[in-house]
What we know:
By secondary structure, the protein is mainly alpha-helical. Helices cover 84% and strands 2% of the residues. Strand 1 and strand 2 (63-64) form a beta hairpin.
Amino acid sequence: MYENQNNFNFLQQERTESLPVAKTFISGVFTWMFLALAITALTAFYFGTNKELLGMLFNSQTGMTGLGWIVTFAPLGFVMLMSFGFQRLSGSAITLLFAVFAILMGMSLSFIFAAYQLGSIFSTFLVTSGMFGIMAVMGYTTKIDLTKLGSLMMMGLIGIIIASLVNMFMDSKDMGYIISFLGVVIFTGLTAYDVQKLKRIGAGTEYGTESTRKLTIMGAMSLYLDFINLFLFLLRFLGRRN
């Protein structure tokens, strides 16, 4: 009986000690995510409002330039490099890659300033921030295990990727809107799931280690992608074209 009580007290103490670590970890994740979003937004605005720079990426007559295609697909390469090189890369290297990734994403998103009115871009960003914030708080505070929801959302994500590739050839507006609607639902759900997952990861990390530093950056990238994708799908509905 006494031994069981000691075990219970130890578990309670361990759980209590893990809470500040988890909060510190999550705080670091959101800090890096916000920094990356700021870098992306400034880069996108700088390129999108400069005709010469935008012309290097996109030509109104011929479409995407060679550099434009490179900039479009380069972020995917950076994500794969950071994911598969997680064990071998240092924390500083992953941080640098994440910063360059944010710049490239900004360059690839600069086209939205040519396609949509500035006011609607800003309003969509505010709506995205609100939805993201609500789901992030829900994911952090809920006691419900969101693992099944995450698995379902990942299956849906694979589905809309395949549907998007098919629609590149079909060029159906109706299918495009259906994909966008599903995209909003999926990335709204993934936001809550990812935050809960990161909270659990944070509770099991040791503050100040190289591994924790790398996990913080990878967590920031995960939430960053949730935000960006949610923003782009919402822009399809809320954005007013030029």
